[in-house]
Every structure is written in C-alpha cells, then in structure tokens.
Amino acid sequence: MYQQKLPIILASKSPRRQELLTAMNLDFKVVLKEVDETYPEDLLPAEIAVYIAEKKAKAFDEDSKGSIVITADTIVAYNGEILGKPEDAHHATEMLTKLSGTNHQVYTGVSLTHNGEIRSFYDTTEVFFNTLTPAQIQYYIKNYQPLDKAGSYGIQDWIGLIAVAKIIGSYTNVMGLPTERLYRALAEGNWSV
Questions:
Q1: 107 has a pLDDT exceeding 70
Q2: Per-position b or e across 81-97, b if 16+ CB within 10 A of its CB
C-alpha cells in the first residue's frame, strides 16, 4: 500500500487527471507552467508522450525539492499519424471522422520528479470505435467541446459511451493518466523525504 509521505504537485490543468488523483485518495495541489510542447519529428508515438512529459517535468526542477511533481502527456495515434488537440471544430470533425469505425492507440507518458531526479514511463491502450454518423460527430462536438482533448474525444464523455466498442489496456490511460502504473511507480519509488 502506498503511504504518501511527500507533498504531490500535479502539473496539469486537465480536470480528468485531477479527478483521477482525487479518486486515488492522493493529496495534491495543482501548479501550472507554460511549456513548449513541440517534439522532434523522428520520434515514435510512445517516445513523443514521454518526451513531452519530461519537457514539462524539467520546468518544475526547482519545485521538486521536497515534493513529487507529476507531469503527463497523452497523444492519440491513428495509422502512424499523431492526433493532438484539435485547433477548432472543423479539425475535430476531421479527427473523429478518421477514428470512426476503426481502431487507434492512446499513449500517455508520465514523469515523476523529486529533487531534480526524473523517472518516466508510458502506457498504451488500443481503442476500437464503432462507426459514427456525421450527426453524432456534430452533436458531440457541439455539446461536449472536445477541443482540449487529444484525438478530439474523451472516453468518459457521451462519445465513449456510444462509440467505444472495446479497449485493450488501461481505461484511465485513455482518460490521460494510467493510474495503476502511477500507483505502482509511487509505491516502488523509494522517494527520500
């Protein structure tokens, strides 16, 4: 069982990540910093997620003294194409049309930083979508505002309930934080107080 000994900082504005840490009964505070999320073109999807999580972690180097800082990045990959957060409703429509009736991968890279030391991991989930009608896609975009979500959707939203036929891997990973891997990393961390 993980006994929290150090303060935790969640470096994410994602309400889903905040909900997941709360559900894990972790005590944390949210601290935000702007970080450039560009990455080298030659990286594989899992490498991109970890690269950006570590880039975010490095911005919190000073804040990690006496605390554990959690940073994360989630990306969606479809046929080798990275689907980040959509720029607008039209872009979201394009992404969801691509995902409709197919399967894709969701990668979340996570970094834990303490006293300047960064430990990172990633998780992958395969997501299978039913075919969506154009009306369903427009309803979702209009009513659920998915512009802050990689791949233009949240599995916990309406679209997840009606379109996700099955997943192989972690559900919480698709939400943006693989909680079982995070819990294990915290428990096995041997973080010095």
A1: yes
A2: ebbbbbeeeeebbebbe
